[in-house]
Amino acid sequence: MSEVSENVGALANSVFANIANKWALLIIETLGTETLRFSQIKARMNGVSHKMLAQTLRNLERDGIVNRTPYATVPPRVDYCLTDAGRELQQTVHGICHWTRSHLDHIEAARQRFDSAGG
Amino acid sequence: MSEVSENVGALANSVFANIANKWALLIIETLGTETLRFSQIKARMNGVSHKMLAQTLRNLERDGIVNRTPYATVPPRVDYCLTDAGRELQQTVHGICHWTRSHLDHIEAARQRFDSAGG
DNA sequence: CTGGATCCGTCAGGATACTG
DNA sequence: CAGTATCCTGACGGATCCAG
């Protein structure tokens, strides 16, 4: 209960903070079961900056969610794909994306209701 | 091909930004199938501030994910629970929380590997 | 092409105080 | 107890340049 649990809590918290953000979830969803290069990922995601993509990709790699494979060619080429753990996570992330898409009208209606109610 | 952030863009993006953050996901997970008061939610969540809880709760309510029920008693009392749509979402969110918990050691190992590799 | 570093503006988010 | 407003700091995130 004392220190061990707190450490686990802190770790879980930092892990959660790493994956519970827009870019991380979108990267995971974008990768899916594919293997993509840096520029391909960037092209498929709307409005992600060079910096944030590199940074988030790096975090995901560090957590063993994304697999990074650099090739010593000229010009350089780096492939990214989900690890086994990453693919497990992708299943649930996909669920969120699916939910978001299929509830867009529901949410838009709820917002209008809320806003016109003087919220 | 139709990614979350392609054509549907603006709305999907704002919806996604609302739920794809640490506090929103943790609130959804904390609520689960229960009905809790403001102070109860705050007590169950680790390190959330009064402000962020109120703010995130408000966003979730606006998007029709959380149901807010105020009672005109003294002292005031407000109950929160997930809506039907919210409970659907909670299923997948729970998947992420479950994944995080069951992969903590995997991730910790991956981090140590990454850090000691001179990352 | 990939990715790190730097500068810099914007805003998330914590602390506090006040209302009902 | 619940919610809002204010202030303020640090982190996020974009643009750009440099390196391999």
UniProtKB/TrEMBL annotation, chains A, B:
Please state what the protein is called: HxlR family transcriptional regulator
Give a yes or no for keyword Transcription regulation in this entry: yes
The cross-references to PANTHER family, in alphabetical order and at most eight, read: TRANSCRIPTIONAL REGULATOR, MARR FAMILY, TRANSCRIPTIONAL REGULATORY PROTEIN
Q: Where is the HTH hxlR-type domain?
A: 8-108
- What keywords does the record list, in alphabetical order? DNA-binding, Transcription, Transcription regulation
Origin superkingdom: Bacteria
State the Gene Ontology terms under molecular function.
DNA binding
Q: Which InterPro entries match?
A: HTH_HxlR, WH-like_DNA-bd_sf, WH_DNA-bd_sf
Answer yes or no on keyword Transcription.
yes
